[in-house]
Amino acid sequence: MATTTSEQVQTKRSFSSRISNEMFIVLLMFGVLVLLVVTAWIFVPGFAQVQTLVNLVTNNWYIVILGIGVTFLLITKNFDLSVGGVVALTGVLAVYFSQAANVSQNELANGLGFPYPVAVVLALLGAMSIGALNAFFVVRLKVPSIIVTLGTMMVARGIAQVITQGAQRNTSLPQVFGVIGNAAVPGTTVKYSVVIMIVLILVAFILERKTVTGRFTYYIGANSDAARLSGIKVNRHLALLFILSSLLAGITGLLLASEFKAGVSGRATGYEFDALVVSLLGGVSIAGGFGSVLGMLVGALILSTVQSAATGLLLSPDWQFTLKAVAVFLAILAQSYVLKRRKG
């Protein structure tokens, strides 16, 4: 019996050593996701429906897209709290550039009258300029990213408020403006926004795991000085990641503006927190050098499950916010504990 037990322990350790810590955390959080779904299925009224499970994947597509950029930066020990402001700014710019010019006495009904493709490009350039600003202060001036991106979040949202006069722009738009945000895959109810999310996740996964750029991201997060001495252009790499994060936030802003056919300065308030939450839930380490886009996706599904269950239980938004905070706290403690046991 003792021999059998020893062999079982040896087998478990052998299996554990064959998978990386990152994959181990992903599998652990996937197990947590399954447990949450089963628990909600049993105790939450109306949760036991196929459409509910589909909604877990499709409802939070915007947080997943934002989470890609946030995850890459977290791996390098950097934050991006500007993404919510960039979402709002991009949507407002896209609407303002697309609105017909001089068609009303109401200022909010008049825009610049650019063709929609031109409006999209200019709005995305506006988003990327926020990323470039982040990169300048963090990379060149060495200001902590958490401070810089908190400031640029307010700058982006402030510009959006000026353009909308603290309200919104939703008139004099071309018909094409609302297409991409509302169109669905033929024969299904799955919007193209979800398809774009899936494509971006696949591209990010390949970039993370199969390219030199992905490896550089982990090297910088593990030890930026050593990465620099080994020939990696750390400053340029970080600058590109900040611009990428803002570009992804810009894409999100365009899709949301198209879905609602409006540019709203207050849109995406708190999304930066949710993007950070799903990254941490998925095992991305604030200490850098550890985490994955796949883990972030699992974290997003966990957050979606918690939100859906809370809504089904008729909990107020305040309690839902508290639940998210508790979920992140417990996830970080659990992941830290498991990794220490694994190393031991």
Describe this structure in words.
By secondary structure, the protein is mainly alpha-helical. It has a single domain (22-343), classed as ABC transporter involved in vitamin B12 uptake, BtuC, CATH 1.10.3470. It is built from 15 helices and two strands. The chain has a two-stranded antiparallel ribbon. Helix 2 (21-43) packs antiparallel against helix 15, helix 5 (83-98) packs antiparallel against helix 6 (116-140) and helix 5 (83-98) packs parallel to helix 7 (145-164).
Low-pLDDT segments: 7-17
Largest sheet: 2 strands, antiparallel
What separation lies between the terminal Cα atoms? 24 Å
Order of helices and strands: HHHHHHHEHHHHHEHHH
Radius of gyration (Å): 22 Å
Count the domains: 1
Contiguous helical run count: 15
Query: The CATH topology is what?
Result: ABC transporter involved in vitamin B12 uptake, BtuC
Could you give the count of β-strands? Answer: 2
Approximate strand percentage:
under 5%
What is the general shape?
globular
| Sheet with most strands: strand arrangement | 1-2
Structural class: mainly alpha
Q: Which CATH-level-2 architecture? A: Orthogonal Bundle
Q: What would CATH call the class?
A: Mainly Alpha
Mean pLDDT: 90
Oligomer: single chain
- Percentage of helical residues? over 70%
